[in-house]
Write a structure and sequence with these properties.
With 755 residues, the chain is α/β, with parallel strands linked by helices. It contains 24 helices and 25 strands. Helix 4 runs antiparallel to helix 12 and helix 5 runs parallel beside helix 7. It is globular.
Length: 755
């Protein structure tokens, strides 16, 4: 339906315009009945709908809906198509409930394992997070329902989240904390973006023109409207000017009046307010038009089946020394409260009122498996009862295998607070160690939204991480444990050995007002690889019940230039006896000598399904952007000319093939030459290298302490390093009066060479 929105805006009063820029209540925008402007309903829902029951006044009382795998689980699938399938299912439920915009996905970077909301977020890597977000958004919006990607930007902790400032360099912001949002916007055009609570470099995200207008709209061409997180507005007038269109849930008219007063006083242009209203109305009418079509029939039972199928794809087999899959007919004891009452979702705004929850114990019993059960420890408490422990240990000793269902109780991780440590409840660690001591075939199944320390890892046979797999997690765990499905998940984050190893250990979560991101771009595997630090399990890791071989890795060219591209091909073969899926990961390593670049960075990935004996070729296309970093001196992305390694593998630390490609570019980084420019810098630039070498030859004896004749001292590494770091003014110090007159003409010659 055609809507003349500029004409509608012209008919609105100033007060009505201001009113449209805030919510009518917790979940609805305002309507203007006299002009036929409808309301828009939004709902929490990164992994399912938390939609208010229309018959209840309580905004936290939600309708029954399906809880799908949480963001931490979806990320482990390494499969944008799976994210799209989940999004489409949520979109269908949203249409049936009358929801116009789903508040999700949540795509902030996992800077620290302690962030209380990590279960909702995708990854420590922006490429993975961005591709999954794009898939999810495309799925939801294919059903005529919008999304609101959140929380924009640099919101990677819960502590003082409404006021703390995330302080970082522009390069860190551009390379780590913005790219996932950029990918989502450019590939999927979400209807809305939700700004975060926090400040970024001392400016509230809700008031940041740089974020909300310059980057989001001008650079990325975002077309929808920006809404606040609930209660994220600091100065409403500054927010409108910066590009914050909608305040949720509203302030009871207080901030509307401030907008009106600012326009009348001339401190806020009415044109800026009009832009906000137009952007909001574009989406309001789009949602209304989509809602006019017949809604799909609500099928919660069918969606439950989908949730269980997706959970199978998201689980990560972290360790397996032969016990998995469990042998049919073997005598197995299930231990731990999570076997009967699994933790399947996170706490806070994304908490779903589910229709049913499968447990692994229930599923095992329904399939007639020889499984007994001992609680051992409860699912919701860190509680130890010695009598119950002895029952568990005794049952484990008498069984063919023991499966311990462990994890973090909801009280350990939730929206609103960060964890203070990475440990499981002590009762769980203790019982796992005692069971492993009497049963060599001990399996640990983890239900957790983020990494935990596993002091017993070397003592157990297998570890299967279900993350928070949604309401079908029990059915998925049953299928994976007994070999009815093959694990294919990969870790979307590094699991460190201990909290003290993490990149931001000394800075997280800050002093309450500021948190310094001093690790810069060295987040996650970038940090651990750069420091050659051992980890428990690396980024991208995940095992299978079958095996894969990489063959015939090749580039279509050994060299390419800026503006061109090169294709990378590799064949992957399933050499086992079971169908399986391999995630081929492509990393790029800068070998040009550019300082400050991580050893490798994920740039591409693809999930490939292979039958036993089947072989497929996968292909990636690389451009200059895939080689680039953000150069603050240029104010843009830059790839230095020279050699790059292309690494293909199973994880960040399991590389199966390495290729080399050379890159050439006519662009140069700004090179400011003055008296403090070092001889080493000049020697490394092909435009000035010959000039400075000639100067060194002329200076000869003076610069090498009178040993230019090739003595051991002159040729030593010490002298080479001294010359490399010596500024041009050092020539005067060593060369005396004769050299003093060289500096000015030399600077002119060098500067002319780089023009």
């Amino acid at each position: 339906m055609e809507h003349n929105i500029p004409e509608l805006v012209a008919q609105l009063t100033l007060e009505e315009k201001a009113g449209l820029c805030s919510g009518a209540d917790f979940w609805h925008t305002k309507a203007v009945e006299r002009l036929g402007i409808p309301t828009l309903m939004v709902s929490d829902g990164p992994h399912g709908l938390r939609t208010q029951d229309p018959e209840r006044d309580d905004p936290n009382h939600s309708r029954k809906a399906v809880c799908f795998p949480a963001g931490c689980s979806v990320a482990a699938s390494f499969d944008p198509d799976l994210a799209r399938r989940e999004g489409a299912a949520i979109g269908r439920e949203a249409r049936a409930f009358g929801v116009g915009v789903v508040l999700g996905p949540a795509i902030n970077i996992k800077r620290s394992p302690l962030c209380g909301r990590n279960f909702e977020y995708y990854s420590e890597d922006p490429v993975l997070a961005g591709e999954l977000a794009a898939g999810y958004i495309n799925g939801v919006q294919s059903q005529g329902v919008g999304t609101s990607i959140k929380h924009f930007a640099a919101n990677s902790q819960e502590y003082r989240r409404m006021s703390a400032s995330s302080d970082m360099t522009e390069r860190t912001l551009r390379e780590i904390y913005l790219p996932a949002f950029e990918t989502a916007v450019k590939k999927s055009q979400p209807w809305t973006v939700m700004c975060s609570y926090n400040r970024v470099n001392d400016v509230f995200a809700s008031e940041s023109r740089m974020l909300l207008t310059d980057i989001l709209r001008t650079e990325w061409n975002f077309k929808g409207f920006v809404m606040s997180d609930w209660g994220a507005v600091a100065d409403r007038v500054k927010g409108v000017a910066a590009g914050l269109d909608l305040e949720m849930p509203g302030s009871g008219g207080v901030n509307d009046a401030k907008i009106v007063a600012a326009v009348k006083a001339g401190t806020l242009s009415e044109a800026a307010l009009n832009k906000a209203v137009i952007r909001i109305l574009n989406i309001v009418f789009r949602a209304a038009d989509e809602a006019a079509a017949p809604a799909p029939e609500l099928d919660l039972k069918g969606d439950h089946t989908i949730a269980a199928e997706l959970a199978k794809e998201c689980a990560v087999l972290l360790q397996n020394r032969g016990v998995l899959p469990l042998k049919k007919g073997s005598k197995v004891v299930y231990i731990g409260g999570f076997a009967k009452t699994p933790r399947y979702q996170g706490g806070g705004s994304s908490h779903i009122n589910t229709i049913r929850v499968d447990s692994a114990l229930e599923m095992a019993e329904s399939h007639g498996r020889r499984v007994s059960y001992v609680e051992g420890f409860p699912a919701d408490l860190d509680q130890r009862e010695e009598e119950e422990f002895l029952r568990a240990v005794s049952a484990a000793a008498e069984a063919d295998a023991a499966v311990i269902f462990a994890g973090l109780p909801e009280s350990f991780e939730s929206e609103g607070f960060d964890r203070s440590h990475m440990r499981l409840p002590e009762s769980q660690n203790n019982l796992i160690a005692r069971v492993a001591a009497v049963q060599k075939n001990t399996v640990v199944v983890l239900h957790t939204g983020s990494p935990v320390e596993c002091p017993w890892a070397n003592d157990v046979n297998a570890v299967l991480c279900m993350y928070l797999g949604g309401e079908g997690v029990g059915a998925a765990a049953d299928a994976l444990l007994w070999g009815d499905a093959n694990p294919s998940g990969r870790l979307p984050e590094t699991w460190p050995l201990r909290l003290e190893d993490t990149p931001c250990y000394l800075d997280f979560p800050g002093d309450g007002r500021h948190v310094e991101y001093r690790e810069g771009v060295y987040v996650g595997y970038r940090w651990y690889d750069a420091r050659k630090m051992p980890v428990l399990w690396p980024f991208g890791h995940g095992l299978s019940y079958t095996g894969f071989v990489y063959r015939n890795a090749q580039l279509t060219a050994d060299e390419f230039a800026e503006g061109d591209s090169v294709r990378v091909r590799v064949s992957v073969k399933n050499v086992g006896m079971m169908p399986g899926k391999e995630v081929v990961q492509l990393y790029v390593a800068d070998c040009t000598g550019t300082t400050g670049r991580p050893p490798k960075e994920l740039r591409k990935f693809v999930k490939v399904k292979l039958e036993p004996g089947e072989e497929k070729q996968v292909e990636f296309t690389l451009t200059a952007q895939d080689l680039s970093y953000y150069d603050e001196t240029l104010g843009s992305w830059y790839a230095a000319p020279g050699e790059y390694k292309i690494l293909l593998g199973h994880s960040s630390r399991d590389i199966h093939a390495t290729l080399s490609v050379r890159f050439s570019t006519p662009r140069r980084r700004p090179f400011v030459i003055d008296e403090n420019t070092t001889i080493g810098e000049l020697s490394k630039d092909d435009r000035t290298a010959a000039i400075i070498q000639q100067v060194l030859a002329q200076a000869g004896n003076a610069l090498t302490g009178g040993n230019a004749g090739g003595s051991e001292i002159a040729s030593s590494e010490a002298v080479a390093q001294m010359l490399d770091s010596m500024p041009l003014r050092g020539i005067v110090n060593f060369g005396g009066p004769a050299a003093a007159g060289m500096i000015t003409p030399l600077l002119e010659i060098l500067r002319a060479a780089i023009q």
